[in-house]
């Protein structure tokens, strides 16, 4: 059996690996499928329908299908999978980009920041990934905010337009907030990422510059800190909606995620998920 070349960028390989667990989980729960070799046309069609119903763009669905076909070719399966045209996948603009970081990109950038002594970058990345914070929300974070969040179980932050929102503190986030508080100390008004005498906008530029200067070592994509907010939103939404195809439940899940992100309209959140509803 002929197979495609294994030659590809590391970024593509990581994205392929990121797409597969979701597809396999979908097939296992909906069809009780246990082997990738047994994947057939009906499984792909059902998966495409599911992804569309959750507001995912055709571009992202194409990437999912490419990953599925890539791994499927090494199973020596006799099943021939349909191409995108047979599945009714629409043409997409080349300008559409998936901004969400993969788990591999996230870990490699954190490792790089840690090795270079940039704990501020590590902490900002964790706050963006675990809590969906914007960069200005990360850099304005104070000791008092963290203390209150650990007591109340919700982190209060001020987003765009002065919009105040309260975000539930997950177990993973709680561990990071406890660590940050222990390492930082200081009075309630001191900012955890901004050194004394430094301006907040200087710290923002410093974090952005670090990611921009090192991203070529990590991936072939132009990732930014904001992409971690996209990754948070996507993971949160998929956890909220599960495998439901009910439009009302999907809408409700999107509204919950939109509220947590501080978006006035769920349609904005749909962009974070890889598509518009």
Essential attributes:
hpI Integrase, Chain A; 277 residues; mainly alpha; two-stranded antiparallel sheet; single chain
Structural description of this entry:
The chain is mainly α. The chain folds into 2 domains: 10-98 and 229-272, no CATH class; 103-221, Intergrase catalytic core (hpI Integrase, Chain A). 58% of the residues lie in helices and 4% in strands. The chain contains 12 helices and 2 strands. Helix 1 (10-31) crosses helix 3, helix 5 (119-131) packs antiparallel against helix 8 and helix 11 crosses helix 12 (266-272).
Alpha-carbon distance between the two ends? 40 Å
Overall, the morphology is elongated
Residue-averaged pLDDT, rounded?
83
Strand composition percent: under 5%
As laid out across the biggest beta sheet, the strand order is 1-2
Largest sheet: 2 strands, antiparallel
Brief account:
The protein contains twelve helices and two strands.
SSE arrangement:
Layout (H helix, E strand, L loop, with lengths): L9 H22 L9 H13 L4 H15 L30 H13 L3 H13 L3 H5 L3 H10 L1 E5 L5 E5 L2 H14 L15 H19 L7 H16 L5 H15 L4 H7 L5
Antiparallel strand pairs: 1-2
């Amino acid at each position: 059996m002929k197979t495609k070349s294994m030659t590809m960028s590391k970024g593509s390989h990581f994205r392929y690996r990121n797409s597969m667990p979701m597809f396999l989980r979908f097939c296992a729960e909906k069809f009780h499928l246990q082997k990738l070799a047994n994947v057939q046309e009906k499984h792909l069609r059902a998966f495409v329908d599911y992804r569309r119903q959750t507001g995912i763009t055709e571009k992202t669905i194409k990437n999912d299908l490419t990953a599925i076909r890539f791994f499927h070719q090494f199973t020596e399966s006799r099943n021939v999978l349909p191409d995108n045209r047979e599945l009714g996948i629409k043409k997409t603009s080349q300008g559409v980009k998936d901004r969400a970081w993969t788990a591999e990109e996230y870990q490699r950038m954190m490792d790089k920041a840690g090795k270079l002594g940039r704990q501020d970058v590590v902490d900002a990345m964790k706050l963006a990934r675990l809590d969906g914070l914007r960069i200005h929300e990360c850099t304005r974070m104070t000791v008092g905010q963290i203390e209150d969040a650990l007591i109340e179980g919700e982190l209060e932050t001020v987003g765009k337009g002065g919009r105040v929102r309260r975000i539930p503190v997950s177990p993973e986030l709680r561990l990071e907030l406890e660590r940050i508080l222990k390492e930082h100390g200081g009075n309630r008004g001191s900012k955890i990422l901004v050194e004394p005498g430094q301006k907040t906008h200087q710290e923002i530029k410093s974090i952005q510059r670090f990611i921009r200067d090192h991203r070529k070592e990590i991936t072939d994509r132009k990732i930014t800190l904001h992409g971690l907010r996209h990754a948070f939103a996507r993971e949160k939404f998929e956890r909220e909606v599960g495998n439901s195809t009910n439009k009302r439940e999907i809408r409700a899940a999107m509204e919950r995620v939109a509220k947590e992100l501080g978006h006035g309209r769920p349609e904005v959140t749909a962009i974070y998920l890889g598509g518009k509803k």
